[in-house]
Each structure stands twice: as structure tokens, then as C-alpha cells.
């Protein structure tokens, strides 16, 4: 072989050896890179599965005994006192039946999506409001603490309302009811009706002077109201006993506290529809005023009611859903609970205005009787001629239509002198237009209406027991919105935290 060919062969062999070394070194570096990337993936997977598997191993989170119990808990939290005494007021104030359309639109566009969002994050992350926001971003954890503070203040005033309801419930086992008539005052010479009660009404006087025992001005303390103090203490004891073991104890009470209000509302609706004037109240309620629907104020108040009714932003919805399994169908839950809430508001509105229609009819009959006596006196004194009164009208039994006919005739004949006669038109719509809400509806208007019911103590017991259960259902969700995130975050025993909270 020539010398030059040997040299060329040696050079080729050296190049092959160097190429093989390069390939081997590249394989080693690729293998190291693969191992490093595999380690990173494993770490990321561990982080992702921490919420799914680690949380169950760490704290063995309790779960609902059944899907029905969970649905009743969410319904009990969302359906509260606002459905009974705020929604009917807003409906009447904002155009009657026309208000239902903005409310339904905002419920579909805003309410259900946000409600579903809270259900899904609670169910997926399985933490209370603090843990959910910390998981999204540690910088947002303060939002969870803020929701706990809001729940704290809401719980304080909500339990006061439960205390008021317990007081009225305890006073309802009497015949007649203690707010049926004004109290009598006796002195050395004679007996007379309490002047302050005579100027207002028996139910108003009982609410402010007997139940609340308010002072004349804010500068006067008035002392301790022992009756209400005992009722408030009883309310806290009930809540504490129900919440002491979390959803294991409160979940069982939901079967009664969430379903009983519907039994009472249906009974009230059936009873009210059999009373005179109930149809007038319902007709007045759902007569739409379409021009009001275009006002921005109506849509704003409808949106506020949607948020308030579903309990959005409080943390209770997240807390309840965090005890669910992750494969639970929360889409169905969001739609179901939202529409149960909506139809409950409609049912409560029917009941409220059927009862208020009956109350307005009773007041209207008294108004007609009083004004007829004035007309008879004016006829006898000659201020009104007997000739202008239609011959078919008998003053001993005058229907509302006949009175309005006489009133219109007198108003036309005595046009200049009419204001001095001090006659009232006695229109039932005027009484129904006196919109009431909140405590004014529950403890004044509704209690006054029930005094005219046959067997009024029975209906009073049912009504205030319903208010207690509505308050407890919302109270359970509110307290759970405080206890669950604190227990999740600080690992405190739920029994100890519940006891400390109530004390």
C-alpha cells in the first residue's frame, strides 16, 4: 500500500473516533436534560395534585351525607328574610310585575354565572374563602379575610332578628294576641286608652314600646331590655348547638329549617286567598307599570337584590360547596338553587300581598263606616241635602261602590265647601300603596293583619316560627363562611372555634 494512502486512512479513523465521541457526549447531555425536565414535570404534577389528593390525606375533609342535604343547605342560605320582606317591597316600588323582567334578566346574566363560579371554585379547591383566594394568588388572600369580616357583622344583626322573632313567637300563645288592642291606662278617677297607642296603632305601639322598649332619644340609654337579652341569648345557643360539629350537625337540621318555611308559605297563601280583599292585593302587586322599567334605578336595585338573595361574595356558598366531591355536577346545582330562590320570592310576594290586600280591605271597611257616620250627621244638620243621595242607597248597609258614588256626588255638589267636610275617599289602592319593608312589614303590618285572622294565635305562631327558620338557614351559611376558612387556614378545632365565637 502506498505511504500516502496509509496517512489518509489514519486521518479518516481519527475523524470517525472524534464523531463517535461527539455523539456519545451529546447523548449524555440529552439524557441529563431529559432527567431534569422529568424532575420539573414531577414537581409541577405534585403541585397540581396537592389540591386534589394531598388535601384529602392531610385533613380528611368531611363531606355531605347526601346531595339533598347539600342542596337544602344552599337553599337555606340563599332563601332568607330578604325573600319575604324585601323582594315584595322592591317589586311594588319598581313597577309591580314589570320589575320581574329586569330581575330575571340580571339573574340569568349575572346571578347564575357568579353563583356557579363560587360553587365551582369551592368544590375544586376544597377550601374556604381565605384558602380559595390564597390558591388563586397569595396577594389576594386579604379578600378572603374581608369576606369573613363581612360575615361577622351580618351574623350579628341577623341573630338579633332571630331574637326578635323568638320573642314574638313566645308571645303568640295567647288569645287575644297582646298586640291586638291598645293597652288601657288606669288612674284614680277613670280608665283610658294609652294616648301614644291611640295616635299610631296597637301593633306599632307594641313593637316600639313593649318589644324594643326604645327610649325617647338617642341620648337616653333606657337600660337593659332583659326580655330581648334572653331571646338573643337563646338564638345564639341554638346556632351554637347546630354548628358545633359543622355540617355533620347543621346538615341534619337543614331538613326542617329549609323545608318548613315552604309549608308555612303555602298554608298562608291558601288561607289568605279565602279572605276578602286578597285578590285586590295580588292584582295591585302584579299590575305592571312598564314606564318605570326603563329607569336605571330599577335595574340597579334588581342587581343588588340578585347579589343579596344568592349570598354572593359572603363566603358561605364557597364554604358549603367545599365539602362536595369534585365530580359533583355544580352546573345543575347553580341553576337549581337560583331558580328555587326566584320562585320562593314570587311565592312570598303572593303571600305578602294577599295578606296585605285583606288588611287593606279591613281598614277600608272601617274607613267607609266612619265616613258614612259623618255623612249621616251632615245630612241631619242640613249641611248636605238628602235629595242628592241616590234613593237606592241604604245607609245601614253600604257597599264600597255605593260609598264611592255618594262621595263623588258630594264632591261635585259641594265643590267649594268640600275640603271643610273632611271626608275620605277610602280607596283600597291608597292603603296598598303604603309600601313597607323589613321589620315594618314583619313586626307591624303582618302582625296587624294576623289579628284579623280567625284563630290568629295559630297563624302568629306559624309565621314567627317561619321567620326563625329562615333566619337560622341564612345564619348557618354565614357562620360557615367564617368558621370554614379559619379552620382551613389556622388548623383550629371546629368545636373550640365555634364555642369561642358564640361566647
UniProtKB/TrEMBL annotation:
GO terms for biological process: L-leucine transport. It is found in: Membrane. GO terms for molecular function: metal ion binding; proline:sodium symporter activity. One of its GO terms (cellular component) is plasma membrane. It is a multi-pass membrane protein. InterPro entries: Na/ntran_symport, Neutral_aa_SLC6, SNS_sf. This is Transporter.
Amino acid at each position: 500500500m502506498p505511504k500516502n494512502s496509509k496517512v489518509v486512512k489514519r486521518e479518516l479513523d481519527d475523524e470517525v473516533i472524534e464523531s463517535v465521541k461527539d455523539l456519545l457526549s451529546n447523548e449524555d447531555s440529552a439524557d441529563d436534560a431529559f432527567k431534569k425536565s422529568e424532575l420539573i414535570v414531577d414537581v409541577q404534577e405534585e403541585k397540581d395534585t396537592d389540591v386534589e389528593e394531598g388535601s384529602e390525606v392531610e385533613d380528611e375533609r368531611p363531606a355531605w351525607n347526601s346531595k339533598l342535604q347539600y342542596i337544602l343547605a344552599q337553599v337555606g342560605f340563599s332563601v332568607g328574610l330578604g325573600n319575604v320582606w324585601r323582594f315584595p317591597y322592591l317589586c311594588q316600588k319598581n313597577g309591580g310585575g314589570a320589575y320581574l323582567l329586569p330581575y330575571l334578566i340580571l339573574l340569568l346574566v349575572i346571578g347564575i354565572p357568579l353563583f356557579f363560579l363560587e360553587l365551582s371554585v369551592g368544590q375544586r379547591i376544597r377550601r374556604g374563602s381565605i384558602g380559595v383566594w390564597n390558591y388563586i394568588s397569595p396577594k389576594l388572600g386579604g379578600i378572603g379575610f374581608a369576606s369573613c369580616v363581612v360575615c361577622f357583622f351580618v351574623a350579628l344583626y341577623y341573630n338579633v332578628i332571630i331574637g326578635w322573632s323568638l320573642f314574638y313567637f313566645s308571645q303568640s300563645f295567647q288569645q287575644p294576641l297582646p298586640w291586638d288592642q291598645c293597652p288601657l291606662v288606669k288612674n284614680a278617677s277613670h280608665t283610658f286608652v294609652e294616648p301614644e297607642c291611640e295616635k299610631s296603632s296597637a301593633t306599632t305601639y307594641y313593637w316600639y314600646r313593649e318589644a324594643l322598649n326604645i327610649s325617647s332619644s338617642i341620648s337616653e340609654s333606657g337600660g337593659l331590655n332583659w326580655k330581648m337579652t334572653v331571646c338573643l341569648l337563646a338564638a345564639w345557643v341554638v346556632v351554637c348547638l347546630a354548628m358545633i360539629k359543622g355540617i355533620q350537625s347543621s346538615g341534619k337540621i337543614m331538613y326542617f329549617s329549609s323545608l318548613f318555611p315552604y309549608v308555612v308559605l303555602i298554608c298562608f297563601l291558601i288561607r289568605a286567598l279565602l279572605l276578602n280583599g286578597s285578590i285586590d292585593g295580588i292584582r295591585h302587586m302584579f299590575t305592571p307599570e312598564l314606564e318605570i322599567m326603563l329607569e336605571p334605578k330599577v335595574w340597579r336595585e334588581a342587581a343588588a337584590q340578585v347579589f343579596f338573595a344568592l349570598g354572593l361574595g359572603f363566603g358561605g356558598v364557597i364554604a358549603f360547596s367545599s365539602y362536595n366531591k369534585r365530580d359533583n355536577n355544580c352546573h345543575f346545582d347553580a341553576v337549581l338553587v337560583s331558580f328555587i330562590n326566584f320562585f320562593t320570592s314570587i311565592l312570598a310576594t303572593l303571600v305578602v300581598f294577599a295578606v296585605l290586600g285583606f288588611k287593606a280591605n279591613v281598614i277600608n271597611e272601617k274607613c267607609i263606616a266612619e265616613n258614612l257616620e259623618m255623612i249621616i250627621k251632615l245630612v241631619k244638620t242640613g249641611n248636605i241635602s238628602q235629595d242628592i243621595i241616590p234613593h237606592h242607597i241604604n245607609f245601614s248597609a253600604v257597599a264600597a261602590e255605593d260609598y264611592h258614588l255618594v262621595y263623588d256626588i258630594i264632591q261635585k255638589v259641594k265643590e267649594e265647601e268640600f275640603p271643610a267636610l273632611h271626608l275620605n275617599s277610602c280607596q283600597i289602592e291608597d292603603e296598598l300603596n303604603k309600601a313597607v319593608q323589613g321589620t315594618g312589614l314583619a313586626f307591624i303590618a303582618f302582625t296587624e293583619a294576623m289579628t284579623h285572622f280567625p284563630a290568629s294565635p295559630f297563624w302568629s305562631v306559624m309565621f314567627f316560627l317561619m321567620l326563625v327558620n329562615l333566619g337560622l338557614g341564612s345564619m348557618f351559611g354565614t357562620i360557615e363562611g367564617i368558621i370554614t376558612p379559619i379552620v382551613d387556614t389556622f388548623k383550629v378545632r371546629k368545636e373550640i372555634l365555634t364555642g369561642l365565637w358564640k361566647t
